[in-house]
């Protein structure tokens, strides 16, 4: 494909965005989110999503923001001296965050379902073990691992042994990011070409549902007696 930029109102930055793979776009957004969060490093900071509402970029930014806040909530709740009441409140908050994360992953999958709706699926097409959005979910978490492992590598108060272990782990994480990004882009290319097809099985978290969690529905039943 040849693009004659001189005949179009396209800047160099816009041209790179047009030619970027989907995971390059994801990784750029995830880095931006993590850096934005660490401007305050506060789990109660307000999100300032710069992308147009209902765009896929907006959803990717929100997805990684939820992951980043939850990452730090998980750090806080592991404080051995945390007040038990505060810990319970944090656990409830983490549960809500997990549900929001799941809901958003399903919204991202809905985007892909719509995007590839008209693709003619080949007779020998196969299905993948996970949907594109759940793979992107792992890519978001991986960006957080890389950021925080790099923090460990740059510590000045840690032993050389600790730093060396973290350097090795960081190297593995960076390799994993390359491999996962490549696999996701290949999956999307296969779906677009009809070599693979996607189905989305909505997550059925029974413990969040008062109708399927026996602790909740039995408690409600007893309260009516």
Structural summary, described in words:
It is a single chain. This protein has helices at residues 12-19, 22-37, 56-77, 84-115, 132-153, 160-193, 214-223; strands at residues 126-127, 196-197. It has one domain (5-205). It has 225 residues and is an all-alpha fold. Helix 2 packs across helix 5 (132-153), helix 3 packs antiparallel against helix 4 (84-115) and helix 3 (56-77) crosses helix 5. Strands 1-2 form a two-stranded parallel ribbon. The chain is globular and about 60 Å long. It is built from 7 helices and 2 strands.
Main β-sheet, spatial strand arrangement: 1-2
Helix content range: 55-70%
* Helix-strand makeup class: mainly alpha
The biggest beta sheet reads: 2 strands, parallel
Strand content: under 5%
Compute the CA-based radius of gyration. Answer: 21 Å
Number of domains: 1
Spans where pLDDT lies below 50 across 5 or more residues: 1-8
Average of per-residue pLDDT values = 90
State the end-to-end distance.
71 Å
Provide the succession of SSEs: HHHHEHHEH
**Number of β-strand runs:** 2
Number of helices: 7
Shape: globular
How do the helices and strands line up, and which of them pair or pack?
Elements: H1 12-19, H2 22-37, H3 56-77, H4 84-115, E1 126-127, H5 132-153, H6 160-193, E2 196-197, H7 214-223
Parallel strand pairs: 1-2
Helix pairs in contact: 2-3, 2-5, 3-4, 3-5, 4-5, 5-6
What does this entry show, briefly?
The protein has seven helices and two strands. The chain is mostly helical and 225 residues long. It has a two-stranded parallel sheet with strand order 1-2.
